[in-house]
Amino acid sequence: MKSFFALLISVSFIIASAAKTGHVITFRSPSLYPESFTWDPKSHNFIIGGTRHQELLSISESGVAETLISDTDLPENSSFLGLAIDRRNNRLLACIHRTPTATHPSPFNALASYDLKSRRLIFFTPLLDKNDQNPIATVTEIIHPAAANDVAVDSSGNAYVTNSDGDFIWKVNIDGEGSIFSRSEVFKSHPVDLTDDYHKCGLNGVVFISDGYLLVVQSNTGKLYKVNVNDGTAKTVNLNKDLTAGDGITVRSDGVVLVVSQHKLYYIKSENNWDEGVVFDETTLDVEGFATAVVVGNRKRVYVLYGHLMEGIMGNGNREEFSIVEIEENEDKEDNIWLFVLVGFGLTYFLFWRFQMRRLVQNMDKRVA
């Protein structure tokens, strides 16, 4: 049996791997400090949202940055956070958030929809927290009732926005009508370590799965939730490990879900419609770059955004360059892990069989004696 446990330990070492970078895109935009980005398959460009500027940039694969949208009508000191493209309706959806300040003590949250052809605003929907309840904020005695963080869009054009401070989800239909979609108690069913730097950040990255549900990452618990888009009911996806400080999320065409954190990129797979899942690979990222988002770009390449966000939050930086970096997966990693697991089960069965045969021989020897 010792050999089996040693085998399992070897599997855990296979899971962890250093980042294998491919295409690196460096672009210039002074003090942008982007938190989010998405991939536009029509223009074959990335779209970046800044936290210090009220503009959205288009970034080519060669690193050429151009202003796509500059919205001077946004509330003062607001930021672009989560972004998503509605391909069917050729729209860009953008989360707008302004943190409370001395001059503006109340937070502001909204979802903006822009036409990608004309670049004109389609609608601007304020997102409200009518109940103003946040257990984490109560504990820390700091009231931040809402923070629009990330957005996903379903096949009907409905948008779903995560509230990372209040742990609930808004819904904005295709006409721009907003409402609170899910306040499931499941989102508050897991303990939060208040000593973690990211303990205030709850529901974060969100992605729509074509089978009719959302997958949502919760940063301060490392949990992944499956949320029904018909009624907002939620359940925790049973994973083999937590997604520590999970932030952005996306899904590949083969069904593999990717979750990024400051430290790692997680590769997750499910065989039963995300009732359960397996983290089958982890890639260590550049901590200083502070990755906050992940997308699948041209030719199914996986990219993370290094926006140096913490430097921007601390307000002590004036960085001019940021990067989008391709993370290459070890294509044999998933197959190797499952192979080792199968070998482990086979070894266990063999040891059990040998143990039973030994007992059988001993019993036969006793009878002969």
UniProtKB/TrEMBL annotation:
Transmembrane segments: 337-355
Pfam families: SGL
Entries under SUPFAM superfamilies matching the protein: NHL repeat
Signal peptide: 1-19
Residue ranges the record marks as coiled coil: none
Location of the SMP-30/Gluconolactonase/LRE-like region domain: 34-263
Entry-linked InterPro entries: 6-blade_b-propeller_TolB-like (IPR011042), Sensory_adhesion_molecule (IPR053224), SGL (IPR013658)
Record protein name field: SMP-30/Gluconolactonase/LRE-like region domain-containing protein
Species: Solanum tuberosum
Source lineage: Eukaryota, Viridiplantae, Streptophyta, Embryophyta, Tracheophyta
